């Protein structure tokens, strides 16, 4: 057997062959199925992009209409799922609520008919359709309110924003939210997608695949950083405090949230687009002082860490966009999951097409031939 060098975090080790997305981290390029992210953000919608990622090609008009229709009519969640969610502690994190709810869907649809295209399509539609409803339902129920029923006349993103507070969203806000989902939907072999593929490789059901990926996305080194960025900006509080804050992080070797990336060594192209979206919102709905703090952070981090290739990642500006929409900070990562579920499902489908169970090796650095010490002699 070939002996390979151990790489912490599997840096640079290919874990799959994939045609779903492509990143050039030196040039700051991201493509979904070969199409540049900038073009999709300008011209596509989240559901069209999800279709592209999962089925490999842009849909025809009829295909898109059919997909949108199916998603629209699967948005409602079973009352037993709602009843289960009512028992969750209101102080719990919405990512944990989402992970548990996604797993619970598997109790109702545990068929695992993995060779049947109709089962694949049905699972894709159900997960993409119900995850926003479950996120919004927990948000209302933890405040003691009843969930708001999805509105069939609203499109995907407008309906989610509506379900958060029963107000039809401003059209610019709904469009910007939809673009955010396009930007967050997929990113090659990131930690949560890897998790999804490992889980998929055991041939379990897609609800378990998504639940395991949601659990992985929530950590602060991954999708959870978008929530931490806002907490950091609040803690810094003013532009003058930025430099001392960053100097302190460098001295204590703490991570600056929303900066750095395993693949990008330049500014993440999605951060650039998100920054532009935040500016559009500030223009229409008023400035946010945290944006000035964020700009100063970007300047100081570039000065101090630019030579190491540490620049803003996708999580740096997304929180400012969601904050301006009035969305609570602890929903930022669940919203990331609303988007990324389509990427995970594209990888689930690709993994199933040429499956082999993931079973890497390890470099054992423990003891051998140790004798058992009876408890009274320890
Ligand atoms: C959707 C997403 O997941 S995007 C990423 C979201 N996560 C964050 O924003 C959290 C902050 N960033 C980080 O923790 C990292 O940059 C990660 C997790 C994104 C990437 O991690 P890795 O590729 O393993 O890089 P690693 O943590 O080994 O850092 C490499 C070097 O850069 C430094 N570095 C990396 N990111 C940062 C940061 N945000 N702040 C300060 N220093 C950093 C490290 O201290 C290390 O320095 P050293 O070589 O002198 O020890
Ligand atoms: O790719 C990664 O390592 C992190 C990630 O999910 C992203 O940047 O969207």
Description:
- The protein is 56% helix and 3% strand.
- A hairpin with a 2-residue loop joins strand 2 and strand 3.
- It has a three-stranded antiparallel sheet.
- The two termini are 39 Å apart.
- Helix 9 packs across helix 16.
- With 378 residues, the chain is mainly α.
- Bound molecules: acetyl coenzyme *A (ACO) and oxaloacetate ion (OAA).
- Pathway: Carbohydrate metabolism; tricarboxylic acid cycle.
- This is Citrate synthase.
- Keywords: Transferase, Tricarboxylic acid cycle.
- InterPro entries: 2-MeCitrate/Citrate_synth_II, Citrate_synth-like_lrg_a-sub, Citrate_synth-like_sm_a-sub, Citrate_synthase, Citrate_synthase_AS, Citrate_synthase_bac-typ, Citrate_synthase_sf.
- Belongs to the citrate synthase family.
């Amino acid at each position: 057997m070939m002996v390979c060098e151990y790489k912490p975090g599997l840096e640079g080790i290919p874990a799959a062959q994939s045609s779903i997305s492509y990143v050039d981290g030196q040039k700051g390029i991201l493509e979904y199925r070969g199409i540049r992210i900038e073009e999709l953000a300008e011209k596509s919608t989240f559901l069209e992009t999800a279709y592209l990622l999962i089925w490999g090609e842009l849909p025809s008009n009829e295909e898109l209409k059919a997909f949108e229709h199916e998603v629209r009519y699967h948005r409602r969640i079973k009352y037993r799922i709602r009843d289960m969610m009512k028992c969750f502690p209101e102080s719990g994190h919405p990512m944990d609520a989402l992970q548990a709810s996604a797993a619970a869907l598997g109790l109702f649809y545990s068929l695992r008919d993995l060779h049947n295209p109709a089962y694949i399509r049905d699972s894709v539609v159900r997960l993409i359709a119900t995850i926003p409803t479950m996120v919004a339902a927990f948000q209302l129920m933890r405040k003691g309110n009843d969930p708001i029923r999805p509105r069939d006349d609203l499109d995907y993103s407008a309906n989610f924003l509506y379900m958060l507070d029963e107000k039809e969203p401003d059209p610019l806000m709904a469009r910007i939210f939809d673009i955010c989902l396009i930007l967050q939907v997929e990113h090659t072999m990131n930690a949560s997608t890897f998790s999804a593929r490992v889980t998929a490789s055991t041939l379990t059901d897609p609800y378990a695949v998504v639940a395991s990926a949601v659990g992985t996305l929530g950590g602060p080194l991954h999708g959870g950083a978008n929530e931490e960025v806002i907490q950091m900006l609040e803690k810094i509080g003013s532009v003058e405090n930025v430099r001392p804050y960053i100097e302190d992080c460098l001295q204590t070797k703490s991570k600056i949230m929303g900066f750095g990336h395993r693949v990008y060594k330049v500014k993440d192209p999605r951060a650039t687009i998100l920054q532009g979206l935040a500016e559009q919102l500030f223009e229409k709905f008023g400035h946010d002082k945290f944006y000035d703090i964020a700009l100063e952070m970007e300047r100081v981090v570039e000065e101090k860490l630019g030579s190491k290739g540490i620049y803003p990642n996708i999580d740096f500006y997304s929180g400012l966009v969601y904050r301006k929409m009035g969305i609570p900070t602890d929903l930022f990562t669940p919203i990331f999951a609303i988007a990324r579920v389509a990427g995970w499902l594209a990888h689930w489908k690709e993994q199933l097409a040429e499956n082999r169970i993931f079973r890497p090796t390890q470099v054992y650095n423990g003891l051998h031939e140790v004798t058992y010490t009876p408890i009274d002699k320890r």
